[in-house]
Amino acid sequence: MSTPEPHEFGTPGSPGSTSQTTGAAAFREVQDSAEFAELRSRFRRFAFPLGAAFLIWYFAYVLLSTYAVDFMTTRVIGNITIGVILGLLQFVTTFGITWLYIRHANKNLDPIAAKVRDDLEGRI
Fold first, then answer.
1. 123 Cβ partners below 8 Å, 6+ apart?
2. Angle at the Cα of 44 from the Cα atoms of 63 and 93, rounded to 5 degrees
3. Which of 7, 41, 62, 72 is 20 to 30 Å apart from 124, CA to CA?
4. CB neighbours (10 Å) of residue 24?
5. What average pLDDT does range 77-105 have in this prediction?
6. What is the H or E stretch that residue 75 is in?
7. Over the stretch 26-71, which tens digit does the pLDDT of each residue have?
């Protein structure tokens, strides 16, 4: 791990303090920009509902495992029970959510994030 250069965290009047102030102002400007607000909005519109749906699905599985033992131990094929199938579907769901998020980020988030980053790098 490298140590920061002295001018990166300068105090007022020290070498580099102007670029720090300019950098902080640039970060605030980007944070207040319409592009950044759109990026946050797109992320939240995707992540929060999907996260909530997965948590409901996960807790439903836990509650069924605890309180619906007869249902969860119902054999489907041989020794494979509904509980085993639902447990494996938890893994499938996790991979599915990951795939959906990557697809969403590549299409809807990354282009805006690149524009915001380029704009910020041009200001600092």
1. 22, 26, 29, 30
2. 40
3. 41
4. 11
5. 97
6. strand 75-77
7. 888 888 989 999 999 999 999 999 999 999 999 999 999 999 999 9
Reply yes or no on whether the pLDDT at 77 is more than 70: yes
Tokens found for residue 38: 């759109």
Long-range contacts of 74-81 (CB under 8 A, 24+ apart): none
- For residue 114, the number of C-alpha atoms closer than 13 Å in the C-beta half-sphere is 7
Residue 22 has phi, psi (to 5 degrees) of -60, -40
In this prediction, residue 7 carries a pLDDT of: 40
| Residue 43 neighbours by CB under 8 Å, 6+ apart | 109
| Token pair belonging to 76 | 């489907």
Alpha helices per DSSP H over the chain: 17-31, 34-67, 69-72, 82-104, 110-123
Q: What is the token pair recorded at 103?
A: 């697809």
Q: Which amino acid is at 1?
A: M
